[in-house]
Amino acid sequence: MDNDQAHRQLMEFVLAHPRLLVLTGAGISASAGVPTYRDSNGQWQRKPPVQHADFLADLLTRQRFWARNMVGWRFMRDARPSVSHYALAELESLCYVQSLVTQNVDGLHQRAGSREVIDLHGRIDRVSCQTCGEEIHREDIQQWLEQHNPGFAEQAGSIGPDGDANVDDLDFSRLQVRDCERCGGILKPNAVFFGGSVPSEVVARAASAMQQSDALLVVGSSLMIYSGFRFCRWAADQQKPIVAINQGTTRADDMLSLKVDMPCDAVLPPLVAALKGGS
């Protein structure tokens, strides 16, 4: 299928299913400079991030996490949405997107203007105490970390999609970690770490959004993680079509009505322009 045919079929799909549920993954943020976890074959292309249980159980794991995150946060804080983020926000304003569920934790959909967003895996711009629930903005943590760890604050490294950074060969045991000032509990970003669970109320909201939609549009996700793949299961059970815009393999390739194997930025802005031109 050539590119023109793919664009035409995608537009026909949107017009036929005006109440879309969009599920986005790391691929939509790639052109914003936020790298993906996996390659085009769905395989890991960087060191897996910290596990939820290890973060809570081990101080050295937390020290390693915050040392790397201290570097990564500066980039994530200043990241700007891609043209695909803006295109999806415009599709929502044109009433083609009813809800948007993102597996990303970068908050770029909201910065682009999308309103009906469900952050499936949470956000990294807020931090909360795992004991008393006290919430703190991530930038406040950054200022504390840089003040108490000037040597680490000067480090630089390549960035991960969760705000992690590849900073190796350091003695993480020297890092001072901020605990909750109210109760002394462990502070953790409000993002679902690997090995953790998506909160039940978030799953319920997402399931309701899927139920109320006409179809599922997957953008920039390999769907290798079950929390994303389950949307395809739900759509299939509800006999709703699934279309994916993704470069490379997805876990749901055999379930798709249409696969557009192109970069998001080459697909979504022209789709918006075509829909506006035909309105």
Q: Trace the largest sheet across and list its strands.
A: 3-2-1-9-10-11
Percent of residues in helices comes to 25-40%
Distance between the termini: 26 Å
Count up the helices.
Answer: 10
Strand count, sense and barrel status of the largest sheet are: 6 strands, parallel
**Can you tell me the residue ranges where pLDDT is under 50 for at least 5 consecutive residues?**
none
**Coarse morphology:** elongated
Structural class per helix/strand content? alpha/beta
Radius of gyration, in angstroms, nearest whole number = 20 Å
Please report which band the strand proportion falls in: under 5%, 5-15%, 15-25%, 25-35%, 35-45% or over 45%: 15-25%
| Rounded mean pLDDT score | 90
Order of helices and strands: HEHHHEHEEEHHEEEHEHEEH
Number of strands: 11
How is this structure best described in words?
With 279 residues, the protein is of the alpha/beta class. Helix content is 38%, strand content 16%. It is built from ten helices and eleven strands. The chain has a six-stranded parallel sheet, with helices on both faces. Strands 5-4-8 form a three-stranded antiparallel sheet. Strands 6-7 form a two-stranded antiparallel sheet. Helix 9 (226-237) links the parallel strand 9 and strand 10. Helix 1 (3-16) crosses helix 10, helix 3 packs across helix 6 (138-148) and helix 4 packs parallel to helix 10 (268-277). The mean pLDDT is 90.
